[in-house]
Design brief:
The chain has four helices and 13 strands. Helix content is about 15%, strand content about 35%.
């Protein structure tokens, strides 16, 4: 009798185990969204696309490279004042110089280098007498309120300074510009590029000096010579790019 009960229990256990083994199905993969990776190259001329889409009717002027070649060893203040209609507020020899687009103040006229605003932290505006034309590859002017697209408060206009991205083609180039003027003025500008398929080394630099010892007459009509206006300046942009 005990054997029959044990056999019956074992048989029931086997039946329960076999009945519990069933197929289980989860969510179908056909209804599941796959992960998507979106990649894109950075726009090299983003500011040009912005101007076309949001600044219809506004004036944009890109200064020709042939004109810039005559000012390689001169400051942006002299270059902009002589080759554009923008008013440059200059405070004399060795003094600061600021921009004024269409009557706007210097704080409402931006100076951007590759999209980065340049301004003196103590003044809140850019002093373009410290910047030389030979440091940059492209120089353009954006007139009107559309320049506010590059930053808040730029309702007058913007001076756009740009350095071209590398092309990674074999290139070796060097250009030296020398200048001299009255009262001990000397200017030197150097632009060098060494580039191949992998590397690019680029160096733009300038040096300037002036004694500014010009004569003048004092209150007693004595002929004097200025002795405290001597100036020295140096600046450079050095970049290394790897492909």
């Amino acid at each position: 009798m005990q054997r029959k009960v044990a056999s019956l229990v074992a048989f029931m256990i086997c039946c329960l185990l076999s009945a519990g083994v069933t197929s289980a199905f989860g969510q179908s993969m056909k209804d599941t969204l796959r992960e998507v990776h979106i990649r894109s190259a950075r726009l090299k001329k983003l500011h040009e696309d912005i101007r076309q889409d949001f600044s219809a009717g506004q004036q944009h002027r890109e200064i020709d490279s042939a004109v810039r070649s005559f000012y390689q060893n001169r400051s942006l203040a002299q270059f902009i004042s002589e080759q554009s209609s923008v008013f440059v507020k200059s405070y004399g020899v060795n003094g600061m110089a600021t921009l004024s687009f269409r009557g706007a103040s210097a704080a409402q006229s931006a100076v951007l280098w590759n999209g980065v605003p340049l301004s003196n932290p103590s003044l809140g505006m850019a002093d373009i007498s410290l910047l030389h034309t030979g440091l940059f590859d492209d120089i353009s002017l954006q007139y009107g309120s559309s320049s506010a697209l590059y930053g808040s408060g730029n309702v007058g206009g913007a001076l756009l300074l740009e350095n071209k991205p590398p092309g990674f083609s074999r290139q070796e180039h060097a250009a030296l510009t020398l200048g001299a003027g009255s009262f001990g003025k000397k200017n030197i500008a150097l632009k060098t590029v060494l580039q191949n398929e992998r590397w690019r080394f680029k160096w733009n630099t300038f040096y300037e000096a002036a004694k500014n010892n010009f004569p003048y007459r004092d209150a007693a009509n004595h002929l004097m010579r200025m002795e405290n206006a001597h100036a020295n300046g140096f600046g450079s942009i050095f970049s290394v790019d790897y492909n």
